[in-house]
Amino acid sequence: IHEKPSYPLSLEIFPAAENQEASFELYEDEGENNDYKKDIYCKTRFTCLTLKSRYKVNIQKREEKGYIPAGKRNLVIKLHLENKPKSVLVNSSKLKSVKPGSLIESVNGDFGKLVWSWDDKTGICMIKVPDAGTANEVVINK
Q: Dihedral through CA 51, CA 115, CA 100, CA 58, nearest 10?
């Protein structure tokens, strides 16, 4: 309730065991009224498949049932990993690696730039993807 329409959406992902999949479905509604009782909402499904040489995070196309989140926002995918990834791709395009502080500073804006970072201290790979409600495949190579 009363959230900024351009807030970044952070996803904490703890990958499943090899050859297993973790999944989550995000439900969103206005948050200011009772439209959810009239089935006015949207949903986005996220999956993370763990393979021997990579992780595959799939962001499915947003299912809109009369509600669309207002404004622009970024998705910040935070994968908790044991080792630094070799590379990160979104829809087959290789992303530029940046320092964690640089990525964090850009999450509230810069909606067209896809980047990733690695934090040695926390073991978190962060990937910034603009949220346009479209499907995206993120591949993290081990």
A: -30
Provide the pLDDT for residue 15. Answer: 96
Strands 115-119 and 96-97: parallel
Other C-beta atoms within 10 Å of 32: how many? 8
CA-wise closest residue to 104 among 3, 2, 5, 10:
10
pLDDT in tens, 56-103: 999 999 999 999 988 889 999 999 999 999 999 999 999 999 998 888
Bridge partners for 57 per DSSP:
48, 138
Backbone dihedral region for residue 86 (phi beyond 0: left; psi -120 to 50: alpha; all else: beta): alpha
pLDDT at residue 67 in the model? 95
Token pair for residue 137? Answer: 């495949």
Indicate the average pLDDT of the chain: 93
| 142 contacts 85 by C-beta, under 8 angstroms | yes
Strands 124-130 and 74-80: antiparallel
Q: List the structure tokens of 108.
A: 């509230």
